[in-house]
Amino acid sequence: MHSDVLSLSVNECQPVQRVRLESNLPSKEKIPVSWVIVDDFLKYLPTPTLPYLVTLIWQVFITLTCLSTVIITTPTKKLPVKDKAVLITGCDRGIGHVLAKQLDRKGFYVFAGCLKNRGQGSKDLVDGSSSRLQTLQLDVSKLTQVKSALHTVEQQLHSKGNI
């Protein structure tokens, strides 16, 4: 079968591409897009021979095997939480607020440093948490408040037998 090679512009923004058209189509008719095969794209595709397909399947198998091995053998053990304590600053809102709640749910003793100890963020923490969470007045830019928070944390941990 004989075929002609023409140059067509797919649209005005794209460069002209060589396409192969069947010769039995009248040249004056509008050519449907489904009949056009882009020659430049097809010349880079490998010929799908049996050795090529076997190699491709083997490579996919090895890749999936390696990925599944890594996923299965990744350690999922977690450190024990018993008697662990954390001090978190910025617990009025945002990341500090969420982190304090999460660690309290996991069983940590949480000392939540809040800029305003009687503010709404501090009240939300106390209302939605266990007795292991304690809020502290803590502005890290004031040395007296940092020392006071340290003293409170040391006293609480000492009374629990953690220090």
Automatic annotation (TrEMBL):
Signal peptide stretch: none
InterPro entries per the UniProt record, alphabetical: NAD(P)-bd_dom_sf, SDR_fam
Gene3D superfamilies: NAD(P)-binding Rossmann-like Domain
Pfam families attached to this UniProt entry: adh_short
Molecular functions (GO terms): oxidoreductase activity
Name by which UniProt lists this protein: D-beta-hydroxybutyrate dehydrogenase, mitochondrial
Keywords assigned by UniProt, alphabetized: Membrane, Transmembrane, Transmembrane helix
